[in-house]
Write a structure and sequence with these properties.
The complex is a heterodimer of chains A (about 290) and B (about 230).
Chain A: H1 2-42, H2 44-49, E1 53-54, E2 61-62, H3 65-96, H4 99-114, H5 117-135, H6 143-153, H7 155-167, H8 171-179, H9 184-195, H10 197-213, H11 216-222, H12 239-246, H13 252-285
Antiparallel strand pairs in A: 1-2
Helix pairs in contact in A: 1-13, 3-6, 3-7, 3-10, 4-7, 5-6, 5-11, 6-11, 7-10, 8-9, 10-13, 12-13
Chain B: H1 16-24, E1 31-33, H2 39-42, E2 45-59, E3 67-68, H3 70-77, E4 95-99, H4 104-114, E5 126-128, H5 131-140, E6 144-149, E7 158-159, E8 161-162, H6 169-173, E9 180-188, H7 195-205, H8 207-215, E10 219-220
Parallel strand pairs in B: 3-8, 4-5, 4-6
Antiparallel strand pairs in B: 1-9, 2-6, 2-7, 2-9, 2-10
Classes of the chains: A mainly alpha (about 290), B alpha/beta (about 230).
């Protein structure tokens, strides 16, 4: 009787676990089914690298080149802002901060992760956009503003994973370095960070995925212009923000092209996640 | 409502194209649209004009430009005129604010300003997803120009006179303001519309409905015709 119940519970949990995989499979199938035909029809080259997106015209032009570049620029900018800052906080919290301060920083970072992206966008729009417009020029809605706010949004990813990686470095490494006469800073820079590098790399890649996939905050701050940005102060658009902006009204081939953009985005994110998994697995082996 | 107690009108604001599609698929009895029907849609759908709306060209209140010709507006939005000094303003680059492809407001602007065979809207322009978002950008940026529904205009933006005519209820009704588009109720052509839906359309076209449309800044429909006889 007891054994039967055990098996029943086990089976139920198996079904529940499988349903997650099935959902992923269904989502993947529908995105590809709706978007892939257009990519095949246009050719991957033309779709990815043509910068002209004119869906409303008869026989419209569907090239996502400008959006791909916009996504890459914004993501790169977010990393430039977020990685040094995040790594500094992780090092401070793991190595330098007194215990009581660490216990304040950690929940604060988690809180940062819990703020809805529309709030980040709203703060960026009311604080950062007017500041950039007044002091740096351009319309304020720009690659720069989106990148800075995204840089802050990816901090929780970078800090929490990097900090775990730093804390996981065996104490013997620290003690050895200090015993050899290195300063605390030399120990951190030359021993600790290199020893934790695979975890840090994984945190950067996951942060990159977050920046690439963010939609709402970007729609609010980037200006959604279809041009290839030539300066940080130019408005631009990303793959996600364009899907978010245009989906409501899209029909026919236009809708198909938005799903095709989703396919490209999906592949980008999958590659990033695989990369993150690979580098963090390497850590476990060594 | 008083004449029909217990009747619920379920309205979803999801965009013109979605509203038209909802009638085509039979999901809704009436679809409301801020753009004209396409030719292929006219075959199966019947448009009923419920009100007129003016497209207001808006700028920041500090902008010294008060009047633009239709040709100047066209060239500004095509990206040919890029500096305010070219149209009598101070030397400052123009920030264009546009709607996204598929939007009814953008469709009307393309038809009324850019023209059928006119130049395309500049790809450099900023794009926002709603009338309110366009207004918010123009409110904040002294160099911006955008277009929104006249009913959405507030005191934090300034409307520009088009060929010397400011958009007002009077100038639209008199036919002097040129950037005017119809708001439509769309029903299936030749289909049997439920009595309640016909009553609803009669209400919207009636005095009470037209008054409440006017109270939100829309201009009454010129002819109040329904495709059926009651």
């Amino acid at each position: 009787m007891e054994g039967l119940r055990e098996r029943l519970i086990g089976r139920t949990l198996l079904v529940v676990a499988c349903s997650v995989i099935i959902m992923l499979a269904i989502i993947t199938y529908f995105i590809f089914q709706a978007g892939l035909p257009l990519i095949v029809r246009l050719g991957l080259d033309d779709f990815l690298f043509n910068p002209h997106w004119m869906p409303a015209e008869k026989g419209g032009s569907f090239g996502i080149g400008a959006m791909v570049l916009g996504s890459l620029w914004v993501t790169l900018g977010a990393l430039i802002v977020g990685v040094p800052l995040g790594l500094a906080v992780a090092v401070f919290s793991a190595e330098l901060a007194p215990e009581w301060l660490s216990t304040v920083i950690r929940p604060a970072i988690q809180l940062l992760a819990g703020i809805p992206s529309v709030i980040y966008g709203f703060v960026g729009l009311t604080v950062l956009v007017p500041w950039v417009r007044a002091h740096l020029g351009g319309p304020g809605l720009s690659v720069l503003t989106a990148a800075v706010v995204l840089g802050i949004m990816i901090l929780p990813n970078i800090i929490s994973i990097s900090e775990d990686a730093l804390r996981a470095v065996p104490p013997a490494y620290r003690e050895g370095a200090l015993a050899l006469g290195s300063t605390r800073w030399q120990m951190i820079w030359r021993v600790l960070i290199p020893a934790a590098r695979s975890g840090i790399a994984a945190s950067v890649i996951l942060g990159m995925g977050r920046a690439l996939g963010e939609t709402m905050a970007v729609i609010m701050m980037i200006g959604n212009s279809l041009q290839v940005p030539r300066s940080l102060l130019d408005p631009a658009t990303t793959m996600t923000s364009n899907i978010g902006l245009e989906m409501a009204y899209a029909s026919g081939e236009h809708r198909e092209a938005l799903f095709a953009t989703g396919v490209v985005l999906f592949v980008f994110i999958m590659v990033l996640n695989l990369a993150a998994n690979t580098v963090s697995r390497r850590r476990v082996k060594s | 409502m008083r004449a029909h107690p217990g009747v619920h009108v379920n309205i979803q604001g999801i965009g013109s194209t979605a509203g038209i599609q909802a009638v085509q698929t039979g999901a809704a009895d009436i679809g409301m649209s801020s753009r004209d029907l396409l030719q292929e849609e006219e075959r199966t759908l019947e448009p009923i004009v419920m009100a007129l709306d003016a497209l207001a060209i808006i700028v920041h209140p500090s902008n010294t430009v008060r009047n633009l010709t239709l040709e100047q507006i066209r060239r500004i939005f095509a990206g040919e005129i890029r500096d305010w000094s070219e149209v009598g303003g101070p030397a400052a680059p123009i920030t264009l604010v546009n709607r996204e492809a598929g939007s009814g407001t953008r469709g009307a602007f393309e038809e009324l300003v850019m023209g059928k065979n006119g130049p395309p809207l500049s790809y450099r322009s900023i794009r926002q997803g709603s009338n309110g978002a366009v207004r918010a950008v123009v409110e904040g940026d002294p160099r911006a120009i955008g277009y929104i529904s006249l009913g959405i205009v507030n005191s934090r933006v300034r409307t520009i006179a088009v060929d010397g005519v400011l958009p007002t209820a009077e100038s639209v009704e008199a036919g002097r303001y040129r950037l005017v588009r119809p708001f439509l109720m769309v029903v299936a052509r030749g289909g049997e519309l439920p009595k309640l839906s016909r009553d609803y359309i009669a209400y919207v076209l009636g005095d009470e409905g037209q008054r409440s449309l006017a109270s939100i800044g829309l201009i009454p429909a010129p002819r109040k015709e329904t495709p059926w006889k009651d």
